[in-house]
Design brief:
RNA binding; kinase; six-stranded mixed β-sheet; 8 helices; Immunoglobulin-like; transferase; five-stranded mixed β-sheet; single chain; mainly beta; about 700 residues; MSP_dom
């Protein structure tokens, strides 16, 4: 077997230490050192004496798992601590290279133990890597934790993050302190007035406050003594600012809270909790040493910060629940304040961003709506929609009024405005129907005497097309090319004026799920494949000049020469990809990237519905989460690879611990807002989720 290289154990030994409860525990961190997903398992020669959690699993690229090794107690079969030097531990790992292997591991993570067994059976012995980890035993005594043995010091100064609940706790503690002080003072006077055993020298005095009904004389002259004692105590309480008979009234409580909470010079509340100033004792009365007030410490005035609980810190996505069937497409308008979504329920819905209010519904299609495109001009926003009813509809976006409709031979899978055209040009692709072949159409709307009509500018049909196109988009520095997506992972580029083919790009080994082009630079193209589970960023043309400010002045009438710039392999089949709208060629080609970086691409997908039922993926939120990607610079021992994509760190908006909820089906649509502060995702579950990125 090969040595262990795909996983790096830290430390490279099992170092046992005595835990606080006396048990023998060791931690080993397994870091993924490979360029893809890695499966691992930990073994021991004494499985009856040691527990390994987790004993096996899989780690994504750039991540790690912490493995805990605990010696069982003797009553459960564990040995003595000295026997740990005789036991042996071994780590084994194997790279995950095929989709079938990923599905087996995914099924294992969902509780299907047979999936993990089948995975390891499929790994040849020559590909299996292993490494024995030596055992080290701590010889020192059991660690003492200072914070555990020291008694907590009572402090009247709250922390800077004091909450409103802590303020009320301080009020309650102060109230109890005053009650205890009053009870102690009554004991010095001979016990509660009129209580059981008053003036009899009880060995076990009671601390309960006597009720009014029990304050009666016993016929021995003790009622007069009790009344004098009560009057004396009440006078002392009154001098100290308390209510009659030592009871705290509402006014007393308000005074206490007023002393704890004050306004600072800036007008904001501050916390200042301290002991009350000592009051002079009445003449002739001697204070007990235990009740003498200590000098009040200097308390720093700190701002009052009312923090929320950990549950309220979880960020919730804005969920748009307007479609009754799967969401097929979504896009933002140029302002980023309106989101348009399409679904198989024949509806197109406009939502306000970011509050997620439904603005209007566009009802006109008689089948599933597959795509939409919005254009902002001087006359208002114009919306294009296409669907399974073979129609392209033109809408007035604000009024949801149909201005024109274009009928095509078959199902229209995609439609897109040409934003760089002075006229109302758009491109669409449709399937074939009976004798009419599949085609790509470039059309234009014309306003004739206040009525909108359309005319065809160019048409590309089978057999000129390699197959029916599933998507069409405008590309090039001046949007002079059309690119269409076909079967077998092929992307074809066409001249938008003449309709002639100018280039072909085998983007993926199998079908291309979706492509995306940034609004700022038409020479970049992102694509994703479902079978190979890869996201790839392509450069369609490089400027001939080295000047970074070149605006393609020297590329008029040029042809695309696609080349791969960056790629990333995901852990699930991909259905959609989105690219940052402001991304430029200079940013994508730069070797040096910021340390933090920004999310540049989004990819999403997940298992099909039948696969979800097999592996029980419906409860896995991560499987149906958008995958954030950023530009990375990766280096190896031999060379430096300046261009690449990496998974965005699990922090901020992408931290799974700070989020709650997610989609319950594979993703079909993704989009960035124009300022890249929000992202939207549409899923098989019919929901659209808005997430704040910044």
């Amino acid at each position: 077997m090969a040595p262990l290289t795909v996983i790096k154990p830290q430390p490279e030994a099992v170092e046992f230490r005595f835990a606080r409860d006396g048990s023998l525990t060791a931690w080993v961190r397994l870091q993924n050192a490979w360029e893809g997903q890695v499966a691992y398992k930990m073994k021991t020669t004494s499985p009856k004496e040691y527990t390994i959690k987790p004993a096996s699993g899989s780690i994504r690229m750039g991540e790690f798992h912490d493995v805990q090794i605990v010696q069982k107690p003797p009553e459960e079969g564990g040995g003595s601590p000295g026997s740990s030097k005789k036991v042996k531990f071994m780590g084994q790992a194997a790279p995950v290279t095929t989709q079938a292997q990923k599905l087996l591991l995914y099924a294992a993570d969902k509780g299907k133990a047979a999936g993990r067994t089948k995975f390891w059976d499929s790994i040849p012995k020559e590909e299996l890597q292993e490494q024995q980890l030596p055992v080290k035993l701590q010889t020192e005594e059991v660690e003492e934790f200072q914070d555990a043995v020291e008694a907590p010091v009572e402090s009247h100064e709250p922390s800077s993050d004091a909450t409103r609940s802590e303020l009320w706790k301080a009020r309650k503690a102060r109230s109890q302190e005053l009650k205890n002080a009053k009870s102690s003072e009554e004991l010095e006077e001979g016990g509660p007035p009129g209580g059981a055993g008053a003036g009899r020298g009880n060995a076990e005095p009671t601390f309960e406050e006597p009720s009014a009904k029990s304050r009666k004389g016993n016929g021995r002259g003790e009622d007069a003594d009790a009344e004098k004692s009560a009057e004396k105590t009440a006078a002392r309480h009154k001098a100290q600012g308390y209510g009659a008979a030592g009871k705290l009234t509402d006014q007393d409580f308000d005074d206490i809270i007023g002393r704890m909470t004050k306004l600072g010079p800036d007008g904001k509340p501050v916390v200042q909790v301290s002991r009350p100033a000592p009051q002079p004792a009445p003449e002739g009365a001697e204070q007990s040493p235990s009740l003498r007030p200590s000098p009040a410490p200097d308390v720093e005035r700190k701002p009052l910060q009312l923090t929320t609980a950990s549950k309220s810190q979880q960020k919730h996505d804005v969920v748009l629940q307007g479609h009754s069937r799967p969401v097929t497409y979504l896009t933002f308008d140029d302002s980023g304040k309106v989101l348009y979504t399409c679904g198989k329920d024949k509806l197109v819905i406009a939502w306000s961003v970011p509050d997620g209010e439904c603005l209007r519904k566009y009802e006109g299609h008689r089948g599933a709506v597959w795509a939409c495109s919005v254009l902002n001009n001087d006359d208002g926003s114009l919306l294009l929609t296409c669907g399974a009813d073979n129609y392209v509809l033109l809408w007035q976006a604000e009024s949801a009024e149909i201005l024109c409709q274009v009928e095509l031979p078959g199902v229209v899978r995609c439609v897109e405005w040409c934003s760089h055209s002075l006229s109302l040009r758009f491109a669409c692709c449709c399937n074939g129907f009976k004798a009419k072949p599949a085609a790509i159409e470039v059309c234009e709307f014309i306003n004739i005497q206040g009525a909108m009509t359309s005319r065809c500018c160019a048409s590309i049909a089978v057999p000129k097309l390699p197959s029916a196109a599933t998507q069409v988009a405008w590309a090039g520095p001046y949007r002079e090319w059309l690119c269409s997506v076909h079967e077998a992972g092929l992307v074809v580029f066409w001249d938008a004026v003449t309709g002639s083919e100018v280039a072909r790009l085998p983007a993926h080994e199998d079908a291309v799920s979706k492509i995306a082009i940034p609004h700022s630079d038409g020479r970049l193209l992102a694509s994703c494949g479902r079978q190979d589970m890869e996201v790839r960023l392509w450069c369609l043309a490089r400027p001939e000049s080295d000047d970074e400010e070149s605006d393609f002045d020297d590329m008029g009438g040029g042809k695309p020469t696609p080349e791969l710039m960056r790629n990333f392999t995901c852990d699930r089949p991909l259905n959609c990809v989105a690219i940052r709208p402001s991304l430029t060629f200079q940013q994508a080609a730069a070797e040096e990237q910021d340390a933090e970086g920004s999310c540049m691409l989004l990819a999403g997908g997940g298992q099909d519905a039948r696969d979800v039922a097999l592996v029980e993926a419906g409860t896995d939120v991560d499987q149906f989460e958008p995958i954030p990607l950023r530009f990375a610079r990766t280096s190896t021992a031999d060379s430096v690879v300046p261009l690449g994509l990496e998974h965005y760190p699990a922090e901020g908006a992408w931290d799974p611990k700070s989020r709650k909820g997610g989609h319950f089906g594979p993703l079909h649509a993704l989009a960035f807002s124009p300022d890249a502060k929000l992202c939207a995702s549409g899923s098989e579950d019919g929901n659209v989720r808005l997430r704040e990125l910044l």
